Amino acid sequence: MITFIVLAGLLVAGALLLVLPPLLGRGRVARDTPASADAQQAESAMSVLREQLADLDAERAAGRIDAQAYAHSREELERRALDEGQVMAAAVQARPARAWAVAVGLGVPALAVGFYLAVGTPDALDPQKVAGQQGFTAAQVEEMVGSLVARLEKEPDNVEGWAMLARSWLVLENYPEAAKAYARLAELIPNNADVIADWADVVATQHGSLLGEAEALVIRALAIDPDHTKSLALAGTAAYQRGDFAAAAAHWERILARVPPGQDIGRTLLESINEARGKAGLPLLAETAAPMAVAPAQNPAPAPAASSGNAGSSLKLAGRLDVEAALRDRLAADDTVFVFVRGATGGPPIAALRFKGSELPLDFSFDGVAQMSGDAPLPAQVSVAVRVSKSGDVMARSGDLEGRIDGLAPDATGVVLNVERVRE
Predict the structure, then answer these.
(1) Beta-bridge partner residues of 88
(2) Measured between alpha carbons, how far is 318 from 353 in angstroms, rounded to an integer?
(3) N or C, which end of the chain is more exposed by having fewer CB within 10 Å?
(4) Is-contact 387 400, C-beta < 8 A?
(5) Burial track 146-169 (b if 16+ CB lie within 10 A, e otherwise)
(6) Which residues contact 281 (CB under 8 A, 6 or more apart)?
């Protein structure tokens, strides 16, 4: 209550400082002030924009949107905030009127108090009477979202607007409308795995299952990005719901292979994997000290002997890692550098190394590095890839630097692996 009174007093004093000088003959032009007729509407809109900004920050913190989408959405919110706040009255020229100055100086505070007591909410100054009251109702928020819907009818290709609308419907738990918004967003940016995975998540929530339409969307997202983390998680859940526990474990293991050791999410994911593996009759996995690796916790069945070539031999691939001259200025000293070995047909990494950007160029070797596939025989040919992660996360993101060589023997030496392109 004291804080409100102090702030109200400061506001009245500020208003008087704007009004009194020209009345006292100082010849100043009154500054623009907000039009009272639009004040209530602007205040309501600003409240909704603050809630949407908080939702956007939460989406970014959870990793559901990348930095570019976050920046675009935040810019849109800030622009809308300026649009709502710029309701101004025209400036007027005032002549000296000292009598009026005295009347205004004494009358404005008295009128403000009297007006608040007459039409305001004095009980709101009592904390006990407003305990538990907060924000707007869902109906009020939905009414305000209607203005965004109306705007998108005039701007049907506004990507940021459709993304904001989809998240707004999610806040209101209106999943059918959220699904429609994501469907439109997928039309505008058809090759975006993030959008399609979020769309699948909404559809699954709407129908209570990932099977059917939602799983079809997940497959579509994985076709765009086979390593998309959320899509792999949803695909694993769909397989689990279908009773294909081995497939569920396989999808989740591809995520686990990219989680740095020691993180809580890795342990939680490992528990889900082991639950699925147990139901599928597969050996369980246990944490290991090797980076990004898991090994069987139980003795698996003996691996079949290698049929030909280098299959079954130890991984000894070695070479030189460097950066193309055109990209050297984009490599920061604290960037995280991952070097992966995979089978020629793709799939999860067989083994991985981790370096810092400041260490490049350097010689690397996988001789003695623990394999993520345990004692499974090596394929006759492998590929080696490098990813310079700007975020420090093993999950690929737009703006990362990459390079790759295919068709190598597991014991190849003298390999020259270059960071040669920027991930789109």
Answers:
(1) 34
(2) 11
(3) C
(4) yes
(5) eebeeebeeeeebbbbbbbbbbbb
(6) none
Domain ranges of the chain: 243-301, 318-422
User: Which residues, in sequence order, are CB contacts of 397 under 8 Å at separation 6+?
Assistant: 66, 389, 390, 391, 423
Residue 69 burial by CB count (10 A; 0-12/13-18/19+): exposed, middle or buried? buried
Measured CA distances, 141 to 110, 169, 305 (Å): 35, 10, 64
Provide φ and ψ at 175, rounded to 5°.
Answer: -70, -35
Residues in contact with 280: Cβ distance below 8 Å, sequence separation at least 6, in sequence order: 245, 246, 249
Q: With helix as H, strand as E and coil as C, how does 67-88 read?
A: HHHHHHHHHHHHHHHHHHHCCE
Between CA 424 and CA 422 the distance in angstroms is: 6
3-state SS class at 180: helix
This model's pTM is above 0.85: no
Q: If DSSP codes are grouped into helix, strand and coil, which group holds residue 321? A: strand
- 219-248, pLDDT tens digit by residue? 999 999 998 999 999 999 999 988 999 899
Q: What is the full DSSP assignment across 84-117? A: HH--BPPP-B----HHHHHHHHHHHHHHHHHHHH
Tens digit of pLDDT for each residue in 186-205? 999 988 999 999 999 989 98
- Which residue, chain included where needed, has tokens 């929530």? 205
* Residue-by-residue DSSP string for 281-305: TPPPEEE-SSTT-EEESS-PPPPPP
Strand pairing report for 421-422 and 318-323: unpaired
Please, which residues have CB within 8 angstroms of residue 324's CB and are 6 or more apart in sequence? 418, 419, 420
Measured CA to CA, the distance from residue 149 to residue 45 in angstroms comes to 14
Neighbours of 180 (CB within 10 A): 17
